Amino acid sequence: MKSITILGSTGSIGTNALKVIEAKKEKFKVIGMSAYSNLELFKEQIEKFNPKYLCIGSEKNAEILKRLYPEKTIYFGDDGLKLMGALDEADIVLTAISGAVGIEATVEAIKKEKRVALANKETMVAAGDYINKLLKEYPKAEIIPVDSEHSALFQSMQGSRKEEVKNLIITASGGTFRGKTLEELKDVTVEEALKHPNWSMGKKITIDSSTLVNKGLEVIEAHMLFGVDYENIEVLVHPQSIIHSMVEFVDNSIIAQIGAPDMKLPIQYAFTYPEREGSSALERLNLKTLKELTFSQVDNEVFKGVQLAFQAGKIGKTMPCVFNSANEVAVELFLKGQIKFLEIYEIIEKAMELHKVKEIDSLEVIKNVDKETRKWVYDNYAKD
Ligand code: NDP
Ligand code: MG
């Protein structure tokens, strides 16, 4: 029996993780669960999975939970989230929060030498170098990727040595606006941007998919997770989202992981690795109904998310953090209707231009750069 803490249980990854756990009750148990604002869904989940530790965004909601569940340990806020990352009784911590707010809980989980099932890619982008240093200090801790592309890369690499890997080929659906021109993107609405062709996900990542910033974040995430140079990471548009990514080896052999576009598989694999297990929760890909698998290049003139990420990644140090933080606020402002779609790129570009890179010698450096970048975007672009 493995005990799992889910940070962000009320989100898209969180609810999928609970489906994985429910289908294998004899193997997995939820020991801790965190939500931010969705108290109603959180209560349903608590009734069903009965975890011992809970965490919610506000103190007010924590008080409500304490009255309802006096026998449980209940935390709140960012400090609560840190405590949730460090629970002694957990074997696995699934980081399914969206945004750089997940960094500290991940750090705590590593210090407690847990397995981190990492969905929260923003953590690896903003703080990857710091996290990698920490993993050396705590060698029993491990990060198993949940992001479908990175799970695919990780699965494709099994049984090979690092020196045998030549290139990582990350596939991209191309997002909801694939094929559109800059002119056509000028006035797109939030509703249009939220329609993803293949995946059903949280709002932030769905917007990131439409700008291809998500793919950019994934390029940096892949570099940080697998230690592969940016020159050896490639992005390929593959609209069907069946091949989840590929690894090219030194002998030119390419191994791909393919499957239904269903996050439950990478989530479960991060729980059961190095083993595989069957489950009624997992979707099956019917190869007979597949008509074609196609590939094309990213239109970098229109969708700048990938190129900007390569730029930030190659500069390194605190620049990936700026790329991520500027994007997080830009997406928030776009969702609130305060900026236009293409201004997301403008904000990232300007924030990166203005930033003077720093060495990351502590977590404080990242926290400060994150804070300064957010402030700059709010000061210059927020309308309230
Ligand atoms: P959602 O927006 O659906 O869920 C986010 C979760 O985090 C919710 O439980 C939310 O709580 C909680 N949360 C939000 N803000 C805060 C905060 N400030 N403090 C604490 N908790 C907070 O996101 P997704 O599930 O789509 O994505 C989660 C992560 O996984 C992201 O990093 C994303 O990039 C990554 N990912 C997601 C994929 C997907 O298929 N969805 C695929 C690959 C990666 P509440 O709802 O209660 O407010
Ligand atoms: Mg992904």
From TrEMBL:
UniProt-listed InterPro entries: DXP_reductoisomerase, DXP_reductoisomerase_C, DXP_reductoisomerase_N, DXPR_C, DXPR_C_sf, NAD(P)-bd_dom_sf
Protein's GO biological process: isopentenyl diphosphate biosynthetic process, methylerythritol 4-phosphate pathway involved in terpenoid biosynthetic process
EC number: 1.1.1.267
Residue ranges constituting the 1-deoxy-D-xylulose 5-phosphate reductoisomerase C-terminal domain according to the UniProt record: 143-226
Protein's UniProt keywords contain NADP: yes
Chain positions recorded as Mn(2+) binding sites: D147, E149, E218
First-tier enzyme category under EC: oxidoreductase
Highest taxon in the source lineage: Bacteria
GO MF assignments: 1-deoxy-D-xylulose-5-phosphate reductoisomerase activity; isomerase activity; manganese ion binding; NADPH binding
Residues noted as binding 1-deoxy-D-xylulose 5-phosphate in the record, renumbered to the chain: K121, S148, E149, S173, H196, S209, N214, K215, E218
UniProt feature coiled coil, ranges: none
Required cofactor(s): Mg(2+); Mn(2+)
Keywords on record: Isomerase, Isoprene biosynthesis, Magnesium, Manganese, Metal-binding, NADP, Oxidoreductase
Residues involved in NADPH binding: T10, G11, S12, I13, N38, N120, E122, G202
Reactions it catalyzes: 2-C-methyl-D-erythritol 4-phosphate + NADP(+) = 1-deoxy-D-xylulose 5-phosphate + NADPH + H(+)
Domain 1-deoxy-D-xylulose 5-phosphate reductoisomerase N-terminal per the UniProt entry, residue ranges: 4-128
Pathway(s) of this molecule: Isoprenoid biosynthesis; isopentenyl diphosphate biosynthesis via DXP pathway; isopentenyl diphosphate from 1-deoxy-D-xylulose 5-phosphate: step 1/6
Ranges for domain DXP reductoisomerase C-terminal: 258-375
Function of the protein: Catalyzes the NADPH-dependent rearrangement and reduction of 1-deoxy-D-xylulose-5-phosphate (DXP) to 2-C-methyl-D-erythritol 4-phosphate (MEP).
Family to which the UniProt record says this protein belongs: Belongs to the DXR family.
UniProt name for this protein: 1-deoxy-D-xylulose 5-phosphate reductoisomerase
Species for this entry: Cetobacterium somerae ATCC BAA-474
